Amino acid sequence: MNDLSDRVALVTGSSSGLGLAAAMALAQRGARLAISSRGGDRLAAAEARLAGTATEVIAVAADIRRPEALEELVSNVEEQLGPIDILIANGGGPRAKPATELDDVDWQEAIPLTLLFVPRLCQLVLPGMRRRGWGRIVAINSVSARQPIPGLALSNALRPAVLGYLKTLSQEVATDGVTVNAVLPGYTRTERLEELALSMAERTGQNAVDIMTEQGSGSAMRRLAEPREIGDTVAFLASPQASYITGQGVVVDGGYFKGLV
Quick one: average pLDDT of 246-254? Predict the structure, then answer.
């Protein structure tokens, strides 16, 4: 189903994990893709992997923590592919630490990586989307925005802040044809999850594999999510079929979150 043909999509944090899964789902729907990360072999490998699926794909190295790098990223993408119709804002997860151990350095490192890059990117792509009367903004967030996860104090604090910004923004641009949403994945089989499991294993003495198994069993489906399942949800929110969905945080966690709202 090529319902995104001729739409230009920028996906940050897309050299691996959920960002790459989102890029692949968009490519399968016909989008012209710009993928980005800090660069290196993984970004080149992701570009090569997508080349066989996407109508067109370019890779642009950028450090999302730096405002000037984001400006250059958007400028480069629009110069090579055209105006950005779809923004998938995905960034690295902050350091895994309990609240009692956080210091100023932790906050200074986490805030640009997890929070600030989202509004900065939105400010860069929104003027064009509003002029053209069509746009999709989807942030890949975390279920920790709804239900705090032990040991992830930075994520538990900053992920809800992203939702607060997006919810506010969605109300301001809805009549311009721009939808703004977030996807909140639960425990998903990615390199990031493996890193968190190893970090927890070091603190607790548990086995990292056992930790991941336990994490998966915490969902109603008793398993981890696969990256593709998150990517498909992102692509749906970016599609014409999701034209009446905005201001939402869509939880994709196999029933891990037990709350009602």
Answer: 96
